[in-house]
Design goal:
This protein is an alpha/beta fold and 441 residues long. The protein has two domains: 140 residues, no CATH class; 284 residues, no CATH class. It has a 24-stranded parallel sheet that branches. Strands 1-2-3-30 form a four-stranded antiparallel sheet. A two-stranded antiparallel sheet has the order 14-15. The N and C termini lie far apart (79 Å). 47% of the residues are buried.
Length: 441
């Protein structure tokens, strides 16, 4: 008797087993693909949150711990990328499980110091194939680190003293210049006397630095360094300057600013509250060429004071001067407003060219040598939140024990300080057009 053996059934079993394995790989590949996609999303959220957090930290003087403002900014940008995190730092959103955690002291090896913000975005992702084996979700997390210390030009720039015998910057008496979160660059020589002090991230001069009396510098010092270029030279372009009609006595603000423009306001006598979102233009036709002056206390938001023809500016009393520039409270990066962050704008060298600077008050009209922006705050404390841009003028400051706070940068031709305290707070309330933030991890 012959036994017949059929193999069709065995083939079906093999096919069934193969299909099971194949479907398993497909399911596993699907889960892996979903996880990779979700990780890219988490990385986008972490990147945007780190950048937002570190930008906000500049407004707050680079705090030593995460503030509510930093987390709010980071949470806003995370939400713009499709995920709304929990209501506080490190807390999960009960609806989507997204947790956003900020740190000012990164946990990643090799990244430390001030000006850094680490953001970690994490959330649970449901599985498909692995769910069959009891693995219902997997946690996805991505981390990014951003820095606000990418501007190497410094925030206090003296531009126009290169090659001159006289110092480009002079500090005497008990003058103090604080710029702990930024640097000081000087094209030319620096002369310090009395008990004057500079406390900055770095101090660099293209000439020599002379310390007399008990003067001192806190921070790294470099002499005979290459001169630095004007970091806001774009303001010297015609398109970024107002159009002035001296006959009609009118002016038009540059395109893209959205600002009103007032020509030689109140014959150059500024007082009270200035009109918001306005460019105040002054030229040699005001005060006989001696420029505008301020009396009493003056406040103003979203304003730019434009000094044409190198016209002087004077503030000399015990009043308070509290001004904010266009774009105040918002990042200038990517802004179409060329005046974003700029409080004083004096781009022209007038009739002077490069003059001979002396550390003394009383530089005359636009035919002087050179004109000055003069601040004597007496015993008052003032707050200037924007950039002072006057690369062909002298900034002359003095007071009687007061303190002047600048949130942004100074770009001037020459600097003279006699017993004044000038604090550059590291963009504590406003965003400088020179500020640079970026991802470093």
């Amino acid at each position: 008797m012959k036994i017949v053996r059929e193999e069709e059934g065995a083939t079906l079993v093999l096919v069934a087993l193969s299909m099971t394995v194949l479907l398993g790989f497909v399911g596993l590949a699907t889960d892996v693909g979903i996880l990779l996609r979700q990780r890219r999303i988490a990385q986008t959220v972490a990147d945007s949150a780190a950048l937002a957090g570190v930008t906000e930290s500049m407004y707050e003087g680079s705090p030593s711990s995460v503030t509510s403002g930093m987390y709010t900014a980071a949470s806003h940008d995370a939400t713009m990328n499709g995920f709304t995190p929990g209501s506080s730092n490190g807390a999960a959103n009960s609806a989507n499980g997204l947790t956003l955690t900020l740190r000012v002291a990164p946990t990643i090896s090799g990244y430390s110091g001030s000006g850094l913000v680490q953001a970690t975005a994490s959330f649970a992702t449901p599985t498909i194939f692995m769910n069959l084996f009891g693995i219902h979700s997997l946690n996805v997390a991505s981390t990014a680190i951003a820095s606000n210390l990418l501007n190497s030009d410094g925030c206090f720039n003296v531009q126009n003293g290169e090659g001159l015998a006289n110092p480009a910057a002079t500090m005497g008496g008990s003058s103090q210049l604080f710029g702990q979160n930024c640097g000081v660059t000087i094209n030319g020589n620096l002369s310090m006397g009395g008990s004057s002090n500079i406390n900055a991230k770095f101090v660099t001069a293209s000439g020599t630095i002379t310390n007399g009396g008990s003067s001192s510098i806190t921070g790294p010092v470099s002499q005979n360094a290459p001169p630095t270029s004007d970091p806001l030279s774009k303001l010297q372009q015609t398109a970024n300057q107002p159009q002035i009609d001296t006959t009609a006595k009118t002016c038009t603000a540059p395109s893209g600013t959205g600002m009103s423009c007032i020509y030689n306001f109140n014959s150059g006598n500024l007082s009270g509250t200035l009109q918001s979102n306005t460019m105040y233009v002054f030229d040699k036709n005001v005060n006989g060429g001696n420029g505008p002056s301020i009396t009493g206390s003056v406040t103003g938001s979203n304003v730019t004071i434009y000094l044409a023809d190198n016209i002087p500016f004077s503030f000399a009393n015990n009043g308070n001067l509290n001004l904010t520039p266009p774009g105040y409270g918002h990042p200038c990066a990517g802004s179409l407003n060329p005046l974003c962050g700029v409080l004083f704008d004096a781009p022209s060298d007038g009739a002077n060219g490069k003059g001979t600077y002396t550390c003394s008050h009383g530089k005359g009209n636009n035919y002087g040598n050179p004109a000055e922006i003069y601040f004597d705050f007496g015993s008052s404390t003032s707050d200037l939140e924007g950039v002072i841009y006057a690369p062909y003028m002298q900034l002359f400051v003095q007071d009687q024990g007061a303190s002047t706070k600048l949130a942004n940068d100074v770009i001037i031709g020459n600097f003279c300080s006699q017993a004044a305290t000038l604090k550059i707070q590291g963009y504590d309330s406003s965003d400088s057009p020179l500020a640079r933030v970026g991802l470093i991890y």
